[in-house]
Amino acid sequence: MTLTCEDRATITELIAMHGHLCDSGELDRLDEVFTTDVSYDVTDFGQEILRGVQACAEAGRALGELNPVGHHVTNTVLSQQADGGVHARSKGIGVYADGTTGSVIYEDIVVRVDQGWRISHRKVLARRVPLGG
């Protein structure tokens, strides 16, 4: 199956929706972005891999005031995989309440489920040094 322009637009919006839901505190709606059994890898930040959409919501609540006030995603590149899934690579910019920022790379596996496209795996990689370190 070929990835259509409509699929590409839908997946790009799906990736963007994560930031909107987090920034507005609508963590109970993360199932609109992730599969229920999502694997959310934040080991690059010294954390454990989060397993399941509920664990992602709980981690966001636990982080509380340390969450960014703005999650911004850009430079999304999609490539179709042989199994019908999609690999998505995006740049993320987090803006914190004190005005500082951080940069990450999102490595996503996006799959089509009954509800539509959802992220089944996300790895978040911190950008700490220029030129790939």
Automatic annotation (TrEMBL):
<dbReference type="InterPro" id="IPR032710">
    <property type="entry name" value="NTF2-like_dom_sf"/>
</dbReference>
<feature type="domain" description="SnoaL-like">
    <location>
        <begin position="5"/>
        <end position="123"/>
    </location>
</feature>
<dbReference type="Pfam" id="PF13577">
    <property type="entry name" value="SnoaL_4"/>
</dbReference>
<dbReference type="InterPro" id="IPR037401">
    <property type="entry name" value="SnoaL-like"/>
</dbReference>
<protein>
    <recommendedName>
        <fullName>SnoaL-like domain-containing protein</fullName>
    </recommendedName>
</protein>
